């Protein structure tokens, strides 16, 4: 009997030991990392969150101040007073000895605070900055950016500038960013000489966005052997505070020796510019092309406004994703475009005018020769906005009846329609599909006016997330 008691006691003791061990906290392996690694981790946080890590444990108290590169982003949504914003930013910059990984200025107007910006840009703390975002609030006259903002040549990898005027090329400034990989300019005034100088002195640029900027009529992009992604948008400048010579818009874009270019994204180019591109043998993503855009020249293929190239046998066989912007549903023109892109797997069609799209031109068009991409490669089609007009439905049916490997046809901008309407649309398309695998989806998403700002966050710039 005693023997039994002893066995029970041991089991109880053993179980208790396991329970005690399970309640012990896991070892803090992160805190055992070197200061330089902890500093890198903390630098990925914002300034406020990075500072809070000092409260985690004694081991972390000095990391943000002494080892972590500064990551400052200043939206300051709850601060209404500019003077208080300046005070907060200055306090953060003075409290951190450096170095700095990333700074994003967003909340302060440039014109009223140019002296503060100039003083901050000159701080040794920013000497080795890697990412600089200058997203100024829209201000009258596009205030001029201080020259000190362009001094960061040592380690700068990302430069994003919006709503300002660059220093004139005559000022003697010659920006050079040998480590730059990502350049984004949105609504900035910059002359061609200065901008082309940035291109020449930044050979490592991988991604570039030139969105609605002006001050240059002709732009030549060259000496960028690593450029993989390029986005260009142009819109009419209505800012009456600009001098006449600064209202110059981009009319001609020349991209030379684009040996690495994979994605070329264009928008609002029906009023300019013409696009001349050479050497883009790796081009996979292209659009928006318009049935009324001025000129798109790719080697020996020249698409002129209102016409298509007469180049038998010439095709852009590397393109896998194509986006077309059509003023009205002219099926023949769209089909003629497709004949030059035999290998596309995704096709995006944006209808520019709702009222014009109620009319149709040739929706019952029957091409004489086969369309190669419909026979063997086209898997995804997106049509937006789709409202179920007869012209819309017949236009969609043309592709559904002929795309033999179609997997998905997406209809965007269908908000306001009932589930019954959606089912009726799905039924009529299911009855005529050439691909057994074809599915149909109807979504409410419409394209954001600022979609190009984030167009390179995924593989397909035109896809509605």
Automatic annotation (TrEMBL):
Chain intervals with Basic residues compositional bias: 1-12
Residue ranges of every copy of the F-box/LRR-repeat protein 15/At3g58940/PEG3-like LRR domain listed in the record: 118-349
Disordered: annotated span: 1-28
UniProt feature coiled coil, ranges: none
PANTHER family: F-BOX DOMAIN-CONTAINING PROTEIN, PTHR32141
Protein name: Uncharacterized protein
Residue ranges occupied by any FBD domain in the UniProt entry: 368-411
SUPFAM superfamilies hit by this protein: F-box domain, RNI-like
UniProt-listed Gene3D superfamilies: Ribonuclease Inhibitor
Pfam families, alphabetized: FBD, LRR_At5g56370
